[in-house]
């Protein structure tokens, strides 16, 4: 295991107390024990990005996993408390080239799941390929200053956000921001950290209002546009992200983003729905 | 019940053979019987839009449903055959203002679900609201000709698509299209039909290649930006949709869209991942 705090945050231990044998020829649900991370703690709950990365990691480690992540949706159903978590991932259906998953997170003392989600994995194959969403021209990350994060939000200390032509608290009519994202200390971008990057954008409400407000992500989806081999070959230590909202309406708003590698390869598109108070 | 074919396509009959009583104070899983629709049949399977509308309708009809749809993701895991379907919806967790759901579709003779999904419903409340995604200027639908659909795809006969400045088989470097969408015969837009509209866009691969190709939607997500009362007040008989792809990569591409009411209210944003052969 890597010594990075992020790897510790998404660490999983197979739950040996369970019978993991699948029915003959069937697919096995796997249960893992995990633990919330102090370094990736948010204001009142874990950073959602590490939570998404954790359930993705559970599928990546499943012995019957087929292919690479293609699409995932995670719903934050209830407040995760500091402490141990039970992560369960179930292969629902496996085809020739795609595999469908359900996942959940539970904690002791709570009858209902605190997270539900689905994911599709797929074996990629050579076809005609083209990116329509091209990375905007941007100066390299090392030439830009790191945005100073607000105090008292531990997980923000684990990321360097370097903004181009925008500010996370700019205020005004547009929520569009563009920035380089990287781990602190640096860590090569893999699927779990890419998933976490998808939740690392400053909340669009803060961008519009020019200041923090109470918010809470309700549902987050990610589409992956690169396979594992190509992602490893990119050797990214950062991603470039463009994020915006489409609408704020009666207590909820959306946030969408596109992420590219430093070479300009399309990595992922993501969108979420967020509860807010103004 | 409305006499429209669409209403028949999403019709549900509670499965009386099951004990629907929930554990004391608990939340009840509901099972419904449904049937694939001949009028909304696609080339080799049901039109995905009616399938999405069907599971959404099952939640809307659930006696313990709280609020309006906020976000949903549906994964098409296996081929639905013509005939009866078992639709199951389960309230996973209910908070003060949000409710989390899981849903599935099964058919007899198949052990695994053919569809899995999650949804979040929410009670809206008055807050600051603003749409950043504004509807482009477009001539009214009645001034534009209906795009003649290709023969032999029944569900396309149930929609009028009226394109603005684009063609669904335009070919070339851009997959961007803009069009009015309406039911044939006309039907007021409600949540189920809006969900179906989200899957009605010409596949972006066809737009890029200028001709049909084998494709199959794998996962589709919808974010709703309007509540039930406001949607009813819009009295929409059509929606304006703008759709595009971000990337085509090794066997899969994405398709995203924004939908507005004729008055310009933001209705929904949606995106899907699609398997393709070129």
TrEMBL record, chains A, B:
<dbReference type="InterPro" id="IPR029069">
    <property type="entry name" value="HotDog_dom_sf"/>
</dbReference>
<dbReference type="InterPro" id="IPR049449">
    <property type="entry name" value="TesB_ACOT8-like_N"/>
</dbReference>
<feature type="domain" description="Acyl-CoA thioesterase-like N-terminal HotDog">
    <location>
        <begin position="39"/>
        <end position="122"/>
    </location>
</feature>
<feature type="domain" description="Acyl-CoA thioesterase-like C-terminal">
    <location>
        <begin position="142"/>
        <end position="275"/>
    </location>
</feature>
<protein>
    <submittedName>
        <fullName>Thioesterase family protein</fullName>
    </submittedName>
</protein>
<dbReference type="InterPro" id="IPR042171">
    <property type="entry name" value="Acyl-CoA_hotdog"/>
</dbReference>
<dbReference type="Pfam" id="PF20789">
    <property type="entry name" value="4HBT_3C"/>
</dbReference>
<feature type="region of interest" description="Disordered">
    <location>
        <begin position="130"/>
        <end position="149"/>
    </location>
</feature>
<dbReference type="InterPro" id="IPR049450">
    <property type="entry name" value="ACOT8-like_C"/>
</dbReference>
<dbReference type="Pfam" id="PF13622">
    <property type="entry name" value="4HBT_3"/>
</dbReference>
């Amino acid at each position: 295991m890597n010594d990075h705090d992020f790897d510790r945050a998404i660490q999983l231990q197979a739950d040996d107390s369970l019978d993991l044998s699948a029915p003959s020829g069937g697919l096995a649900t796997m249960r893992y024990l995990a633990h919330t991370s102090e370094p990736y703690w948010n204001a009142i709950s874990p950073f959602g990005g590490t939570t998404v990365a954790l359930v993705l990691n559970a599928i990546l480690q499943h012995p019957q996993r087929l292919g690479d992540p293609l699409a995932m949706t995670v719903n934050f159903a209830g407040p995760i408390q500091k402490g141990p978590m039970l992560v369960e991932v179930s292969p629902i259906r496996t085809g020739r080239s795609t595999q469908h998953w359900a996942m959940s997170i539970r904690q002791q003392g709570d009858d209902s799941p605190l997270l539900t989600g689905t994911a599709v994995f797929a074996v990629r194959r050579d076809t005609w390929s083209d990116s329509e969403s091209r990375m905007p021209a941007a100066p390299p990350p090392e030439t830009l200053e790191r945005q100073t994060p607000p105090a008292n939000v531990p997980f923000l200390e684990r990321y360097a956000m370097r903004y181009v032509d925008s500010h996370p608290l700019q205020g005004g009519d547009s929520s569009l921001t563009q920035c380089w994202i990287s781990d602190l200390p640096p860590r090569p971008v893999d699927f779990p950290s890419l998933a976490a990057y998808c939740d690392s954008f400053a909340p669009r409400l803060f961008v519009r209002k020019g200041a923090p407000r109470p918010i809470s992500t309700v549902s987050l989806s990610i589409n992956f546009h690169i396979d594992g081999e190509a992602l490893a070959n990119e050797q990214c230590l950062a991603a470039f992200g463009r994020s915006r909202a489409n609408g704020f309406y009666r207590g909820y708003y959306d946030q969408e983003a596109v992420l590219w590698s430093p070479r300009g390869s399309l990595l992922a598109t993501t969108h979420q729905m967020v509860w807010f108070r103004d």
